[in-house]
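Service request form, structural biology core

Requester: graduate student, group of Dr. S.
Request type: structure prediction, single chain
Budget code: on file
Notes: please return the result as structure tokens.

Sequence provided:
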Amino acid sequence: MQKIARFGVVLAFIACSLTVTRGTARGWSSTVGASDMGLIRLETVAFATHQFLSQKAYQLLAEHPVIRAGYVRFPDLAAIVLHGSIDQGQNGLGPDNPGNSLYSWHWYNPNLEYEPGSGNGLTPKKVAEYLLGLKNLLMSQGLEGGAMAPSARRGTGPSPSDGAHEAAYLAHFIQDMTCAFHVVGMPVPPTAGPDPIRLYRNDAVKRRMIAGPFRVFTEDMWDDVVGHAAAAFADDGKADWFDPNYYDGAWPADVKNSGHFQYEAAVEVAYMKDVLNHGARWDALLATGLVSPVWKRGVSAEVFTRLVARATQSKYTVTGGALFPPELRAEGRVEVPYDDWWRAIQATYTLWRQAFSALVVLPEDLKLVKLAGERDVYQLHAVVRNLEPEADATDVRLAYEIPGSRDQKGEGRVPKIPLSRASEWIPLSGKVRIADPGIHGDRIVYDGAGTVRLTVTGRYPLPDAEETIREVPLRDVRIEGRVLPDMTGWTRIEVVDYMSRNGLVLAPREDAGVAETPDQQFAVKEQSPSPRTVVAAGDTVAVSFWGRFKVKVPDITRPAVPLQEAIRMIRAAGLSAKEPFWHVQVDDSVPEGTAVEQSPAPGTLVLPGSGVMFKVAVHRPVTYPAPPAPLDCFASIDIEPQNPRVTVGQSIKLRASVSFYDPPNGRDKLEIPLDQAHFVWDLVSQDKEDWPAGEVVLMSAAGPEATLTPVAAGLVLVSCRIANVLNQNLATNRVLVVERTPGDEPPAEPPPAAPPAGTAPPTEPERPPVKPEIARDPVSPVEESTELEGSWDTSSDMIVDFRRVGGNDYEGTLTQLLTAKKLRFYKELLGQVVFRATRIGPGTYSMSARNGVDPRTGAVIWVYDYAVVTVRGNIAQVNKGLAWRRLTN
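Core staff response, request fulfilled:
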């Protein structure tokens, strides 16, 4: 039960005036003093029961979180009282003003059959009409320009009196149904002619009424009552219901001292005498609950009103006709109708509460989330708040539309929102197109027109409208996405890092051409989408990078320039002049001492620091000794540090060197000076065929040295071509395996030294003995296969066939890779035998991996103790964190 402070209303009751004009009030009184109409005070000159009951119900309703927070602006109590009251002259906005309602709106007799036109009373229909009107008015507050937000209390939005008329009339009519005088009587049939009351003067009708529901009346009394009613009907064209209790007073005060009116006066006196018990009685009633006990979910307001009336009628003996018996009227004795009043308060609270929903959506509860793969397309997400403190909301459904658009709509659902809680973000179906949202600081906003109209429905076990509508301008809806920065000038590593952190997909383009400045080398030239575009995780961003920075070789031969000027021009272009400068004989048309026959040709784009060779013109004959016999030279690439574990982000240094064998001098290897050599470095990524090599490795080079920085895991072949080495051109390469994280494998054994000339190449080294600690590895007691023979899927795009080569020894041969290109590369690099394995225990093998071939001797290079493999049936566990699967036995 929601805790609400007990009623603390103290009413100043004034003795009931019996000078009320005939017909000014019906049932529970709604009459206030004429001087009070503008002040809307609850102090009355006659006990204003309806205002009293409405105030009690309003105090309860005002404690509801939706009303207290101002998310629904229920009409002010003062406005409701104003619209529910009349003065002693029958003036005012209330329904008891004879000009504002028919009598049949105030009466309903559950025992009568329905008759066309008036039937058994119109109160149920009027209650349903005014509830619908109040519900629509409160729901309209959520429309754009409405007053759902608390800021409306500061003067924006609808007037506080909006809906007051509907709330007042709704309360008045349902409260009438808790008063016994309003659930008896009968309609005046429209077929009765110009004098409808004549029907009840008919002797047959009179005898039937006296014998039936109004037994306390004698025929003379009945005639008097009918006469009084006829006089009243003549004065009031709204009178279409005949209740004998309303006209059973003595002339000339036949109405004001009727049983109906005297009961009201007696109740006031009894309530004033019982002032010491007010608090205890109201507390006890409050403990029974705020919701009318006859309310059931799914029951219409019309049926609910009938149930309230039937419950009232069942409490009284209406067949006797006098609800306030003459003996009690004479003494003015009556009990305070606390129970009836509380039923009226409950019924009023129930219907008022049913006019709005505890499901609330605020502007900050909406957001548009960028969808991946589509430009300017978003998905609407919403949070729904359940502000009902007494019950969960179930089967909550959301539907939205963008008014004025054809297909921008969608829906969503959440099974339950716990009491006083908010839902998680609910993604709604459909797509919302927002063209060119703006960027204001770090916020994404939409500056265009348009509105999101969201309808939320849900189910409650308590009275609730179970529907709310919220309109929010698109400019007020939060937009979520990632704003692409301007990546112009970013390095490839910076781009890859940004894409990875933001879940974006990089689509590299072809290189954007030769870099025009050193700073542009390998940097971003263009991107698509353009900067400040809103993207989402999963979107593809195309980026083009500048290529290497190259300089143009100057023309030092046309016109011919002197030697020193040629050197200056070459150096000014960022290049180097290669010495020695050979002489060449020319005719007299070319000045002696000028540059001729340059290489590379003028205009060629080359790397900065590259050498430019040229000859110097002379007019005399030039002779040179014959070049020496070519030496047995070979090139190699050394890495610092030696045999490193290459990982992503680690920079390593490479150096190219040239050696030759000189057995006659007793030296196996001599370094050759490379001052006159020309180096061209290159690299190829073998693991990512569709990527340029730079997607895996970044490399900068100058002369015989290069620096390499991997940015992604993969297999890379580094090559270096060396020109002008003792009249020879050489080439070499080096394979690097770039790993994601540093491993714990020992470095590869260095290649054996080259044998002296004339000696046979060394045989393949003997396999080292098995280490004792490997031999002692525990063996699982599970029954295992001891055979490694067969085809195995290594889970790395590679299939290896193992065959026994003798005893406990096996060889694994590469038979399949993901692509034929990779297969050729591996075979050329490694040869056929990829793994060697020796059985060291039941189902356990020590394995070595082939790491290449010595380019000088052809000897195989092995990495020993590469892994331990444990075979269990068709699964092989490898201590590198891998699992192999047997394909054939």
